[in-house]
Amino acid sequence: MYDFNSYTEAHSIDEAVRALGGNPNARVIAGGTDVLIKLRSRDEAFVGRDLEGITRIPGLAGVSVDTQGDITIGAATSFSQIENDETITRCLASLGTAAGSIGGPQIRNVGTIGGNLANGATSADTAAVLLTYNASLVIHDSSGSHEMPACEFHTGPGKVRLEQGQLLTAVKIARADYEGYRGSYIKFAVRQAMDIATLGCAVLVKMDGNVIEDLRIAFGVAGPTPLRAAAAERFAKGKVPSGKILEQLGRICLEDTKARDSWRAAKAFREQLITVLPQRAISQALGGDGNA
Amino acid sequence: MRKAINVEVNGKAHEMFVDERLSLLELLRDELQLTGTKQGCGVGECGACAVLVDGKAVDSCIYLAVWADSRKVTTIEGIAATDGTLSDIQESFVESGAIQCGFCTPGLVIAATALLDQQPEPSRAQIRRGLSGNLCRCTGYSKIIDAVENVAKTRNGG
After folding, report:
1. Cα within 13 Å of Cα(A126), Cβ side
2. Where in chain B is the domain with CATH 3.10.20.30?
3. How many domains does chain A have?
4. For residues A169 and A60, is the Cβ–Cβ distance under 8 A?
5. ipTM
6. pLDDT tens digits for range A150-201
7. What is the strand order of the sheet A199-208 is part of?
């Protein structure tokens, strides 16, 4: 038996937002693959809370494309749904790769993209990828809804810009941020399943002939939050992605990262990965074998 | 607080009044006496507690019992026919020597059942991935993967 105080299931976003806003003891639970595990270890942030279930809110799970070609992913969409979704596979392939790299099948069947973001982990596989797509997050509260760039959402380890009474309801990606781009995501971990990334690297590249027109690089676990490697992105623009250029680019990535030692890996090892993985990811995105 | 739920378990409808803090695993084992589903790690790492909910494999130890409301749950007890005839996957586990202590077997049979429903012709790599949420501390996995591969071959006429 889990030691929370109560569980209610919201049937609409309004109902969830009211319940969360009106009770400082309330916490959101989606697939439970983080919350219930924290409860199992009696994490004080969750013991005795009033849990608000959101996974049965109609419309909160699923992927849709509007007439402009902009894509909306409901916060309660499971990793399995994302991995197997036709739109994601066609337009946001690297997001599908990231979703498919999480946990094992049972975890992916219940864990949600909203939970992956809202728990604030720097290792969240989908978070790094969403940064490369310049995704925006839809947040609801009692006064309505607003959008926030995904790059402003994470504020520190386990911390995100969500106030009590606010609910992350969707992730949006504009057509201009995926059309003509090719992306890839490399999760470096000790095991190929049921593991947390030692380092995650997402890239999204748009070519103009043989020259890089635009490049976006994002990392997980290269700092306290998922982050973009802005200096390396600037460096790459207008260049031919030769082996030498990619090698230089890998080193420039270190200008924006703040890797640290943890029991999973040493800082020096992470920094080695920070220089190597973007090269592999870019080669992969451009159709190579990733052995740059 | 207790909540009324309607859940179908192995084809049988149950109207139950459950403590909302209960996991689906506790509901199955303690309230319905379906003890084939095992508790291993309790945190979704080992897959010993895997069951099917609306055909999808989930770890029942980290799945609230109330989430099963209006859903169909299949446990290892519902995989064999009512007369006790084993499913082809169960039979293949026996034939392939994929069982030692047996603690992980119910979860692995569930995971394999879901895998072959979704991917009727999996490669060996896809089988490994499909079973990656289940730990076995005895067999070394090779014979488990053989068992699933053999079922797929037989089902596909080979």
Report:
1. 31
2. 2-78
3. 2
4. yes
5. 0.97
6. 999 999 999 999 999 999 999 999 999 999 999 999 999 999 999 999 999 9
7. A182-188, A199-208, A211-220, A227-228
Asked whether residue A22 falls in the same domain as residue A167, the answer is yes
Nearest chain B residue (CA) to A1: B22
Does A170 lie in the same domain as A219?
Answer: no
Instruction: Name the residue with tokens 């490049």.
Output: A215
In this complex, do A7 and B1 lie within 8 Å of one another by their Cβ atoms?
Answer: yes
Q: For residue A106, give the nearest of B22, B23, B59 by CB distance.
A: B59
Does residue A290 lie in a domain region?
Answer: no
Per the CB < 8 Å rule, is B44 touching A105?
A: no
Residue A59 near chain B (CB below 8 Å): no
- Search chain B and give the residue with CA nearest A8: B20
Topology of domain B2-78, per CATH? Ubiquitin-like (UB roll) (3.10.20)
User: Distance (Å) from the C-alpha of residue A283 to the closest C-alpha of chain B?
Assistant: 24
Residues of B engaging A, defined by a Cβ cutoff of 8 Å: 1, 3, 19-23, 26, 42-45, 47, 50, 56-59, 62-64, 66-67, 111, 114-115, 129-130, 132-134
| Domain B88-155 classification at class level | mainly alpha
Global model pTM greater than 0.95: yes
Q: Which of A148, A179, A210 is the last residue of a domain?
A: A179
In whole angstroms, how large is the CA radius of gyration of chain A? Answer: 19
